[in-house]
Request: fold
Amino acid sequence: MVSRRITSFLISLLACQCLSIAASTVENEAGQQIVVTIANPVQPGSAGAASTWRGWNWTGGYRVSGAAIARARSIARDYGVVEVDAWPISVLGEYCLVYLVAPDRNRAEVIAAMSADRRIRLAQPLNIFATTTSEDRSEEPYRNLQHGLADLDLGDLHKVTTGRGVRVAVVDTGAQFEHPDIRRNVAQHADFVRREGDAFADDVHGTAIAGVIAATANNHGGIVGVAPDAQLLLLKACWPVNEGAALAQCNSFTLARAIMAARDMEADIINLSLGGPHDPLLTELLDILIDEGITVVGAEPVDELSQPFPSSVDGVVAVRSAQRKMRKTRVSVPAPGVDIITTVPAAEYRYLSGNSLAVAHVSGIIALLRQLDSQLTPARVADLLYESVTSRESSGASISACDVLSRIERQVYCKPF
Reply:
């Protein structure tokens, strides 16, 4: 029987009509939420209620079957939990739900019981992830201050490739898509968070990452991105911890939606400038996308012992700030990550630091590569990057974009370093 606390939670959720469905995984206490997937074996185009969200309505005709809905309700009833959100994942043939566990119950025990239930394919915590950027040190924006491009040994590479036609999904916070240095290259944007009073264009972190990757060249001001002609897909799965701050958080559910939207939007590259615990659902989704040819770039953790998402996923290009030493357990790509000047909301610029910026630099390099050879597989891209790491110092120096590109393009000549 459902406890009084759960009943009161349910009433509160129903009463809060001002919030979108997707926002509920953000507004409710993450420590008591769980992610569950169940079988949903229906054919595209079948009748049934679609689970959609504001800002991106694509489901590809994939619908939730009546059997899956009934099963989800029986699970909620049997375990005394409240359904917070739900979404059909076509690529898995499953129905994904977020349930809220009452505060007087142990979430781990509920997950353990669900994991033994034959009706349930996956049960896990709703994990929290965080961006890896620290705040600015000054506010002096101009191209000649972009030491990151010099550190990358970018030189005259833009005469050969600018990332034109390559689609880079920035799965992050929102971004100021009308920023004068970004707007020309924004192909699409969508919000998977939708918090009350939370404006997409006011978010610092996503704006900063977008600028490093694809700030416009030759527009008489501001900065230039590593791949200034790449197309940006700005997908908000994270929200600022404090208003106007670069530090932001995401969760398993918002990230899963944004990652799959990137696939639907035909992204060539997914930039994940964030980190968090191992996540079975997100790992499974990234495995599928990498197998399909999408290159995923993620931040490498500082802790030598941990193997968290996303850098521990096989096939993800792991990136660290060049100022950090390489972990002994695995190779990672060093890139500029300290005092990087980039775009921020209100059409301004700011210095930021962290692995997040390093990840963005490498996503830009990959966009340059993909313009030269659109058939490059994620495995080949990773090989080109990791092989280039061995030609430089293991710490303190950034990877050379020129060295990477010269491995597939004869027009590129690099001076010895």
